[in-house]
Design a protein that fits this description.
heterodimer, A: 128 residues, alpha/beta, five-stranded parallel β-sheet, 5 helices, globular, B: 684 residues, alpha+beta, five-stranded antiparallel β-sheet, 14 strands, 56% helix
Chain lengths: 128, 684
């Protein structure tokens, strides 16, 4: 899905420093970035802009990343938009994230290089 | 049939009375119709008088109808007695032709008067008829009449007129003689236990012999006399020869008959003796056998008693109660054997016994064990083995665990139950202790597991909390390194500085916790203004609190006895938590007040800090764990709010260490209310 406009990526994290860092890194890679500081805001931005990819932190006040993911997959019936869930709670949460509809689980802290590669791969390839 | 000789031979009496009655009636009819043939029967013979006939009829009626016996006897006695008096006094008393005229009056004799012998006979018969139940009396009087009649009849037979004519003018008629014999025999027959009755029906040897001899004496001898007379009249021999011949015949006949009868009687007697001796032998041997059997039975009984005593001694030593029941057809039970229990082993000094008793009674069993006992009783009724344990309360009020087991046994169509009861209270006490130990061990294990899980959770959270700032620091450092813009450097270094401070605080928290756990935290209390501490915290937090959450403070001036550093930590933690857990649009309300009399000598006043929020709150079930180390409420995790699970634990420890208390409760409209009470002055 390559168009003239760069793909839009939605990033949600309640840690504003991390949010800024991630957004900065992804913008440097030439992506359009939307920022949300909690789950509710993320869902609102999704409904408004329909981004090509979502990168969600797990632990957020209001709605957690997995809850946003489940809502998009279930209520919004969007099974194609790639969703990445990142968490510093430990890799053992990966299974739950994938079960609730996420495409990938990233263990924080995520090196910027790894983040960029994963995002680019998910944007280019069709969902498996 | 065996004739009881005590009874009258009424049949014979009636059979004899009937001819007498008929004869009397015929004679009376003859006198009434003046028919000579009916009163004499033969022209040469004397006639039976009308009074005689009347008396005979009365006597016959008295025999045939016992109810009329006494009036008849009295009448007969009067008539005959008056007649005797006439003869004796030689005067007419007007009774001779009482009923009918004597149309055949004998020459010289008063007309109609019966012979004096007849009168005496009839009087004696009347006396006998009066009281037949008096055996000797009733048998003696008829003999007089019989003798008179017999003599008269013999007189007619041998043609000896002196035998029937007592005086010249007093002649007993032949019919009268025969009638007197019959009437006297009839009266003899109706005597209860009388000789005639015995003669006819007696089964004894005496009766048998008498039956043989009586006909000889009554008939044989007169017949012999008649033959002798006949021989003499034919001129075959003279009177002396005839007498000798008669005596010879009578003697030999009587002798022969007597000897035969005696011989037979003796044979019978011998047989009887023999039978008797055999019977005695038999009796003796029977007695011997009986004595021997009795002795055997006694020996057996003694042996059994000894065995039983030995068994009872043994069973008393055993710790069990042994009991044998018989199950009755109606389902009830009856105790056949119950071992003695002198020690009152089950708290029952006198074990129940008897019909309908069950061991032990339902009323004494603990309610929870009643179903088990009922089942056991059902098993007993249907003959199935029993094995159950119940708690049984003894007379001493002590409940004991009794182990009941029993096996059915069928014997001769009856159902028995052999049961053993054992006190197993000690075993149960041990079991109870063991299960208590197991329960506490399990509780401890669960607690340890919970602590372990909390530690895992803590590590995960701590890792998250440590990793996140580190990721920020690392990322910003990378960007600083890659950038040439001094403005961006400054901005990123500032972020790094802030996050480093946060990390320091977290590490300090962990350090505090470690110190609190080991009791090494230093606390230096002094009089500290609580309201100032709250104001400081609110000011510090202001830049971090988003505009969506409002923080209000209502602060009275309250000084508490506290370490200022720790007090700041307490307030910061509580207010920080409230802000952290309150979603946008909510509010945090902080209040400081004095509880009780702060200036009184009693010193029971407290400084109170209350922090209310409209946040997510905690589940009711989580409230008691709120101050546990590492604890994080379900709702906090659900909402993804990070935390170490240490804040409240540290706060709780700090408050408690300074003599204060801390509590939490759910607010009605949602959210949490935390309340801290702190002392105003040092504890005495």
């Amino acid at each position: 899905m390559l168009t003239d406009r760069p793909p839009t990526v939605l990033v949600a994290d309640d840690d504003l420093d991390l949010l800024e860092l991630t957004a900065h890194g992804l913008r440097l890679a030439g992506l359009e970035v939307l920022c949300a500081s909690d789950g509710c805001e993320a869902l609102a931005l999704y409904d408004e802009h329909h981004p090509q990819l979502m990168l969600l932190d797990w632990a957020m006040p209001g709605l957690t990343g997995t809850e946003v993911c489940a809502t998009v997959r279930g209520e919004r019936q969007d099974r194609t938009t790639p969703i990445l869930i990142a968490s510093a709670l430990g890799a053992h949460r990966a299974r739950e994230a994938l079960e609730r509809g996420a495409d990938e689980f990233l263990n924080k802290p995520v090196p910027l290089r790894v983040l960029r590669e994963t995002v680019t791969r998910l944007l280019q390839g069709p969902r498996s | 049939m065996v004739w009881r000789t005590s009874e009258p031979d009424r049949g014979l009496a009636r059979a004899l009375a009937w001819p007498v009655l008929v004869l009397g009636v015929l004679v009376l009819a003859g006198w009434a119709t003046q028919t000579p043939r009916l009163v004499t029967f033969s022209p040469e013979l004397p006639a039976m008088k009308a009074n005689t006939a009347l008396c005979l009829v009365l006597l016959a009626v008295g025999v045939l109808r016992p109810a009329w016996a006494r009036p008849a006897a009295a009448l007969v006695f009067v008539i005959s007695a008056v007649t005797v008096a006439e003869w004796v006094g030689d005067r007419r008393l007007g009774i001779d032709e009482l009923l009918l005229e004597d149309f055949l009056a004998d020459v010289g004799a008063p007309p109609g008067r019966m012979a004096v012998a007849t009168a005496v006979s009839l009087a004696s018969l009347a006396l006998a008829l009066w009281a037949p139940e008096r055996r000797h009396w009733a048998q003696a009087w008829p003999l007089v009449a019989f003798a008179v009649g017999y003599v008269a009849v013999l007189g007619y037979a041998y043609d000896v007129s002196t035998l029937y004519a007592v005086t010249t003018y007093s002649t007993v008629a032949l019919t009268t003689g025969l009638a007197l014999m019959l009437a006297s025999l009839a009266l003899l027959a109706q005597v209860p236990g009388g000789v005639l009755s015995w003669l006819r029906h007696g089964g004894g040897l005496g009766a048998v012999a008498a039956r043989r001899l009586v006909p000889l004496s009554l008939v044989g001898f007169p017949l012999l006399g008649g033959l002798r007379l006949a021989g003499e009249e034919l001129g075959w021999y003279d009177g002396r020869f005839g007498l000798a011949l008669m005596v010879m015949l009578a003697a030999t006949g009587t002798l022969t008959l007597t000897l035969v009868i005696a011989r037979r009687l003796e044979l019978v007697d011998q047989l009887r003796q023999q039978a008797l001796s055999e019977l005695m032998n038999l009796n003796a041997s029977l007695r011997e056998g009986r004595d021997a059997a009795w002795q055997d039975a006694l020996d057996l009984r003694h042996g059994l008693e000894e065995e039983q005593a030995r068994f009872l001694r043994a069973i008393t030593q055993v710790d069990d109660h042994v009991r044998t029941l018989e199950v009755l057809p109606d389902g009830g039970t009856s105790v056949v054997f119950a071992s003695p229990d002198p020690q009152g082993r089950f708290g029952v000094l006198d074990p129940p016994s008897g019909h309908g008793e069950v061991a032990p009674g339902l009323a004494r069993v603990r309610e929870e064990d009643v179903p088990a006992l009922r089942q056991a009783l059902r098993h007993i009724e249907v003959g199935k083995p029993v094995n159950s344990e119940v708690r049984y309360r003894g007379d001493d009020g002590v409940a004991r665990w009794l182990w009941l087991r029993g096996t059915p046994r069928r014997e001769g169509g009856r159902l028995f139950f052999d049961a053993v009861v054992t006190d197993v209270s000690e075993r149960h006490a041990l079991l109870d202790k063991l299960s208590l130990l197991l329960a506490s061990e399990r509780e401890q294990r669960l607690h340890l597991e919970a602590v372990d899980r909390m530690k895992d959770e803590f590590l995960a959270v701590a890792g998250h909390e440590l990793r996140t700032p580190l990721a920020v620091i690392r990322g910003n450092l990378d960007l600083v390194e890659a950038s040439d813009d001094p403005v961006e450097w400054r901005r990123r270094l500032s972020t790094i500085d802030r996050r480093t401070t946060g990390l320091q605080e977290l590490v300090a928290d962990l350090f505090d916790l470690a110190q609190l756990r080991t009791g090494q935290l230093r606390i230096e209390p002094r009089t500290t203004r609580l309201d100032h501490a709250v104001q400081d915290v609110v000011d510090e937090l202001a830049p971090e609190v988003s505009d969506a959450v409002s923080v209000q403070a209502r602060l009275d001036a309250v000084a508490v006895w506290c370490d200022p550093l720790r007090l700041h930590q307490i307030v910061a933690n509580l207010v920080g938590n409230a802000v952290k857990y309150t979603p946008p649009g909510g509010s945090v309300d902080v209040e400081v007040a004095l509880d009780g009399d702060g200036h009184g000598v009693s010193g029971d006043g407290r400084g109170v800090l209350i922090v209310r929020d409209t946040g997510i709150g905690v589940d009711e079930a989580d409230l008691p764990h709120l101050f546990d180390r590492f604890f994080r409420s379900e709702s906090a995790q659900h909402h993804g709010i990070p935390g170490t699970g240490l804040g409240l634990s540290i706060t709780h420890a700090l408050v408690t260490a300074q003599g204060g208390t801390i509590s939490a409760r759910q607010r009605d409209g949602g959210g949490l209310e935390m309340r801290v009470d702190l002392p105003l002055r040092p504890a005495p």
